[in-house]
Design goal:
There is one protein chain. The protein is α/β, with parallel strands linked by helices. The protein has 5 domains: 187 residues, Rossmann fold; 211 residues, P-loop containing nucleotide triphosphate hydrolases (Rossmann fold), CATH 3.40.50; 57 residues; 57 residues, no CATH class; 171 residues, no CATH class. The protein contains 23 helices and 29 strands. A 7-stranded mixed beta sheet has the order 1-11-16-15-12-14-13, with helices on both faces. Strand 13, helix 13 and strand 14 form a beta-alpha-beta unit. Helix 2 crosses helix 5 and helix 7 packs across helix 9. It is globular, with a radius of gyration of 27 Å.
Amino acid sequence: MKREAVQEALARVAAAPWYRGQMASVHVVPARTAETEPLPDVVDPRVAAFLRGRGVTALYRHQAEAWRHVAGGRDVVLSTATASGKTVAFSLPVLDALARDPNATAMFLYPLKALANDQLAFLESADLATEMDLAPAIYDGDTPRVRRPRIRQGSRVVLSNPYEVHETLPYHAMWRRFFSKLRFVVMDEAHRYTGVFGSNVAQVIRRLLRVAEAYGSHPRMVLASASIANPGEHASRLTGRDCAVVDRDGSASGARHVVFFDAAAPDAGSPHVQTRDVFASLVRAGLKTLCFTLSRRTAELVASLAMEERDPLPVAPYRAGYLPEDRRRIEKGFRDGTYRGIVSTDALELGIDIGDLDAVVVSGYPGSVSSFWQQAGRAGRRGEDAVAFWVAFEGIVDQYLLRHPETLLDRAYERATIDLANEHILAGHMLCAASELPVAVPDGREPEQSVARKLEGAGLVHKTDYGYVFAAPSRPHEAVKLDSIGNETVSLVDAEDGDLLETIDLERACREAFPGAVYLHEARTWVVEELDLATRIARMRRKDVGHYTHALSSKNAEIVATHRDRPAGAATASFGRIRMTHRVRGFLVKRYDRVIGGGDLELPERRMETTGLWIDVPWTVLPAGTDAGGLPAALGALHAFEHALVGLAPVAISCDAADLAGFSTIAAPHSGRPAVFVYDGHEGGIGLAERAFTDLPRLVRMVRDLLSRCGCEKGCPACCYSARCGNDNQPMDKAGAAVLAGALA
């Protein structure tokens, strides 16, 4: 796209009747020229001819560097921008190796099914052009059972995902042919394997490599990732291998015009309607546009709003959950011009080939700098200019980044987090591994030894001369969920016919599926009639209502062990293990944020031991006296500071907003004095609170800046209100929190 077209598009938005000055700033990311090297002469002629037939006559610098590492026998991780040719980079050495050894096999792993489908087309083209009898095939939960034996017995390239590998490993004997010749395991979009999910996947990969080794193979690991701050460390923790890092991007890129658009501007209206307005303006300007939303429901809503205009636009929604043939139809229509715009969840963020784009709209902060650039970077793939609108919502993170665009523009990428020491995760996978093959745990290797001893004491494993073997009657794999810790789940069922609607974890069920709760399922409202904790079933009935519910809760924190201390301005901060007690005690019924009712709840206390940081705050930096409600003024200051600290943590560390939680009190059990806690919201902890503790000085400065710059009087969603607060954001003292942040900075 020509630069003039970008300027015309911006002018069109600014001249629209709905525009209220929301374009807070516009920044230009300079173009980048390509750095290339010739295709290596040693590449198998059939593979080289296939690549040339697809227009690949030379390699970008990072592709060539990855080739040299893999050809030299090293494991490798590529960490470069979106649309930089990572598919060619990791496919080239695999195809070359499979061309030289007609019995060799390879496994490609993806976090999303849609990615595997897209890669399958590339590999099928390679198989057709080279005649190497690769028989590439997808093997996942959707693969028909009648096709599975043929894939196990004949495919040289299998595309799957960690969930399927986890379920397949118990039957490894059926895969003897494939595992005995396994040369490569490729993990695309490796940055997605972080937090609880990544910590579980790391154990799955270790189990996979252990099984492969039992059959005599030692596959090389090839990982592809978006740009993150710690690609080498992340790859090593994910695979258990030292990986060569390739992170100097040699691909070309056009100039990118990034617009910071404030959907919380006065009189601007719903952020989703504003997203539609920006998206529609770009499409009407003739720009091929992709809009990313935070949820399936919003993707459908924005697309429907665009299609319901007086002059309907040629656009379509796209998300996970669609049938494969529907996704392929939409992708094809976007490539050939049938659709000029697509509204998608992050299902199109990852490396699916959707053709050239002129513009991207990112609706709401997607959770990390890496994800933002994965989405914004989808436009301008052939060296031409592109435009990216970021529609910032009213929340804490969005408004902070809106005032600090350098945080996004400087690409200070987050660190991916994997915890290899969480005993709850280790225990589940050790049981799975012991049921697959005997598990040998060397002396002195902790925490594995500790977990093995506990499992043996519980009669779940038995120690033999070959290692620990599984000794329980039930299959352990069904109890291990890759996207959670533990197996306490609640089934949500339709009270009308008993059909299962979905399954959620017990903690969330207590917060969102209590009796009387209004629950949102597939964009429709249901009213919960019963929560039976004994049977782990919540029964609810479909009903349209004009209100919503908000759970009220109480917390307490007990320090189990202190690992480290550090000064924090006028206070002291500590990190260690804590035991959180949490109880949902009631709920409010609201309509348009106005309380219209409520009730008490009798739900049991929930206890969780995890890792956390806490700040012991001196009384001297807190406001004295009481507030208008008769509560100590210090409590409101601590509460607002806690919300801002937890709310901004995802900017500094790569985590979901729900992965961390907070608690504040004027009488902490360990001291009897004021304290603020920030802790991992998962049993055992996964390392997020520890990283927040390490980066605490920066976080406190960010909180001080956020609170001092926000124009509200007492507090608002842009600075210290949280939709997840169990006390309905009461009490709240923004001014006192700003003073506290200044004293701790």
